[in-house]
Amino acid sequence: MSKPLFQISIGGRRFAPTLIPTLAFLLLLPLLLRLGIWQLDRAEEKRDLIASLEAKSSEQSISLERALQLDNPDQTKVTLAGQPVPDLHLVVDNQKHEGRLGYEIYGLWQIEPSVGKSVPGYVLVSRGWLPRQDFYQKVPTIPTFEDQKLEGQLYFSKGANQIVAQNAQWQKFDDAWLIGQFDLETIAEKAGEIGYHTAPFVVRQQAEPNSPFVRQWELVASPPEKHIAYAIQWFGMALVLIILFMVLNLKRERQDESANG
Description:
Elements: E1 8-10, E2 13-15, H1 19-57, E3 62-63, H2 64-68, E4 77-80, E5 82-97, E6 100-111, H3 113-116, E7 122-131, E8 150-155, H4 162-166, E9 171-173, E10 176-179, H5 184-194, E11 198-205, H6 224-248, E12 250-252, H7 255-260
Parallel strand pairs: 3-4, 5-10, 7-11
Antiparallel strand pairs: 1-2, 2-12, 4-8, 5-6, 6-7, 8-11, 9-10
Helix pairs in contact: 1-6
C-alpha cells in the first residue's frame, strides 16, 4: 500500500491521500476549471459577435463594391446589380426550420462587369428554405429565379466541412442539383464544375412578405447559452472530482490508531 503524503484528522476520520491520486487530481482539476472558464469566454465572444451582427442588420444596404472594401464585410447588407441565372439551382437536403425538414435553395446571380473586375462573374445566392412536402419528394418545386434586383447579406464560409466534401454525392433533377448535406465550399465547387465560377461568399436574400421562401438564418452556429451550458458541465465535473478525491482518501480511523495517537 502506498504511503500517504500527509494525514489530517477530521472528526473520526483521517484524510490521507497518496501520491498517484494526488497527482491525477492536481493535473485534472486545473484542466477542468480552465475548460469551464474558456467556455465562459467563448460565450462572451458570441455575445459581442451577435451584438455586432445585429447592428449590421439594421444598417442600410450598400453596393457590393463598397462592402468588399470593408475590413470585415461578413453579414453586411448589400444590393447587387446584374441578373439571375434562371434555370439552375443547387439544393441542399435535410435542412430544418422549426423542427420541420426541408431544403435550402441556392441560385446564381450574374454580376455586372464593373464588379466582376474584383470578383468572379457569378455569386451564389441563398434564396431561402422550402419545406419538404412528403417523404417521397426528391426536390421541391422551386419558383423561377427572376428577381430584378438582389438585396441581402453577405455570408463568408467559416471553413470547409471535410466529411461532406469527401463524401459529396450530387443528384441531377431537371434544372436542380441535389446534395444531402450542407457545405458551402462544396456547393461553390459544384457551381464551378457546371461552368459558373463564383465569388468566395454567398448573398442570403432578404426576407420578403409574399415570398414562398423562409429566410431566417442563425447569426451564429452556437449561441452563448450553449457555451454557458458547456461551462456548467466542466465546472460540475471539477466539483465531482473534488468530492471523489475527498471521499476516496477519507478513511475511518481505527480504534488502535486512535489509542496510540
